[in-house]
């Protein structure tokens, strides 16, 4: 994997943009370092206004030709994928002439979890001569630091829940399931699946409203960690101000993510939101809580 230093300043950077605020945050950080950025927002995923202030070309899923021709015209050889995405049904994809030669790769990639799919996407882009970088390689400031964000700290019960959550995620990692779990008073309440973290937290909020969760409010932790042997160029666990709000709504005590291997969006706003809600946000050392 290329280092952040090696990744910087080597010609224009193409950023394939999914949903959320992270693509724009990464673009601004890279541009601030003096590197030209070209955005490739994906129809149906990216914010319609994301291209304002940057050269950009809208992409349609599975139409590789549009990306390849425009990226080459702009002089981009390095590519970053960042932002939320929803996997569409394979048969709904309308492929172009550059996608058809790699159809077998795409089909194999769909037969597995997200990590398997991203590996296939990387293979396709590398086949056409592009180098795939992680967003953290070109904008290392987006990585979660070790320690607390905000002033609220976890108690001993929270740390026990964090340890159990990390053990669970490590155990299920080889099955390429999710990157998050919720543990409350040593009880696993939820494991992230295809619905994503936001929907998982909404499910906990709904279950609590229905009286299906016995633990009191302000007990329980959202734990996020990358899968073992995950390609860190794609889909690192991510939190932001919205995550804090949803954790508070779900009645949990806080959030714990692995420092250096997770992304934090808008950390200043995260700290403000966490203190306001009275929840902790903790960056974990690699060896746990």
Q: Can you describe this structure?
A:
The structure is a single chain. With 289 residues, this protein is α/β, with parallel strands linked by helices. It folds into 2 domains: 4-140, Rossmann fold (3-Layer(aba) Sandwich); 143-284, 3-Layer(aba) Sandwich (Cytidine Deaminase, domain 2), CATH 3.40.140.80. It is 36% helix and 17% strand. It has 10 helices and 12 strands. The strands form 3 sheets. Strands 5-12-10-8-6-7 form a 6-stranded mixed sheet, with helices on both faces. A 4-stranded parallel sheet has the order 2-1-3-4, with helices on both faces. Strands 9-11 form a two-stranded parallel sheet. A hairpin with a 2-residue loop joins β6 and β7. α8 runs parallel beside α9. The model is unreliable at 1-9 (pLDDT under 50).
Mean pLDDT over all positions: 87
Number of helices: 10
The CATH homologous superfamily of the largest domain is called LpxI C-terminal catalytic domain
Strand order of the largest sheet: 5-12-10-8-6-7
Question: What's the count of strands?
Answer: 12
CATH class placement of the largest domain: Alpha Beta
Give the tally of structural domains.
2
In percent, how much strand structure appears in the residues? 15-25%
Secondary-structure element sequence? HEHEHEHHEHEHEEHEEHEEHE
- CATH architecture of the largest domain, by name, is 3-Layer(aba) Sandwich
The secondary structure category is: alpha/beta
Instruction: Choose one word for the global shape.
Output: elongated
Q: Extract low-pLDDT stretches.
A: 1-9
Gyration radius (Cα, Å) is 19 Å
The major β-sheet equals:
6 strands, mixed
* CATH structural fold name of the largest domain: Cytidine Deaminase, domain 2
Report how far the terminal alpha carbons are from each other.
27 Å
Instruction: State the helical fraction.
Output: 25-40%
């Amino acid at each position: 994997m290329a280092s952040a230093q090696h990744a910087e300043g080597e010609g224009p950077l193409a950023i394939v943009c999914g949903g959320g605020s992270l693509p724009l945050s990464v673009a601004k950080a890279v541009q601030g370092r003096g590197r030209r950025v070209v955005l490739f927002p994906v129809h149906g995923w990216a914010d319609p206004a994301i291209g304002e202030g940057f050269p950009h070309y809208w992409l349609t899923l599975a139409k590789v030709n549009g990306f390849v021709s425009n990226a080459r015209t702009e002089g981009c050889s390095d590519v970053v994928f960042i932002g939320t995405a929803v996997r569409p049904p394979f048969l709904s994809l309308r492929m172009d002439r550059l996608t058809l030669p790699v159809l077998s790769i795409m089909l194999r990639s769909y037969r597995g979890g997200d990590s398997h799919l991203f590996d296939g996407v990387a293979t396709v882009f590398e086949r056409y001569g592009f180098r795939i970088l992680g967003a953290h390689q070109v904008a290392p400031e987006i990585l979660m630091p070790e320690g607390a964000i905000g002033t609220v700290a976890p108690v001993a019960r929270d740390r026990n829940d964090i340890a159990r959550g990390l053990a669970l995620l490590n155990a299920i990692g080889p099955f390429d399931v999710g990157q998050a779990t919720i543990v409350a008073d040593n009880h696993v309440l939820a494991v992230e699946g295809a619905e994503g973290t936001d929907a998982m937290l909404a499910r906990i909020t709904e279950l609590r409203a229905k009286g299906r969760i016995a633990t009191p409010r302000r007990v329980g932790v959202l734990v996020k960690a990358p899968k073992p042997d995950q390609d860190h160029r794609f889909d690192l666990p991510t939190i932001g101000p919205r995550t804090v709000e949803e954790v508070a709504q779900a009645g949990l005590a806080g959030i714990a993510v692995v420092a250096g291997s997770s992304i934090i969006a808008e950390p200043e706003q995260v700290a403000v939101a966490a203190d306001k809600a009275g929840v902790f946000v903790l960056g974990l050392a690699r060896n746990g809580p």
